[in-house]
Design brief:
This protein is mostly helical and 106 residues long. The chain has one domain. α1 packs antiparallel against α3 and α3 packs antiparallel against α5. It is elongated and about 70 Å long. Keywords: Membrane, Transmembrane, Transmembrane helix.
């Protein structure tokens, strides 16, 4: 019986490590997406002529930068939740109102 419980604990620990790695990758991906698109948006915004000429790309860079910010905040927020050991179940409304979900839905 002990080995069965021990095996379950090992699988749970492995699952937590995989989640941790996934959220680190998520945060890195979000940071890269945010930085690259924000730099492109800033480069276009510096010239009114470029904004007029490339307004669709400018809007796309801004929305992609916000999506990257959402992914970055999602990864960091979930890492904080894992590291602090919060295990309480939350309502659907609580999860829906997390900052990264608001940014993703926008």
């Amino acid at each position: 019986m002990w080995s069965l419980d021990h095996a379950r604990i090992k699988r749970l620990e492995l699952g937590i490590k995989i989640m941790h790695l996934a959220f680190v990758i998520y945060a890195i991906e979000g940071a890269a997406l945010f930085l690259t698109n924000a730099l492109f948006a800033i480069a276009i915004a510096r010239s009114h002529r470029l904004v007029v000429k490339y307004y669709i790309l400018f809007a796309k860079f801004i929305t992609d930068a916000l999506s990257g910010l959402a992914a970055l905040s999602s990864g960091v927020g979930r890492l904080i939740i894992i590291e602090t050991g919060i295990e309480q179940l939350r309502s659907g409304r609580f999860c829906m109102l997390m900052p990264w979900n608001i940014l993703f839905s926008w």
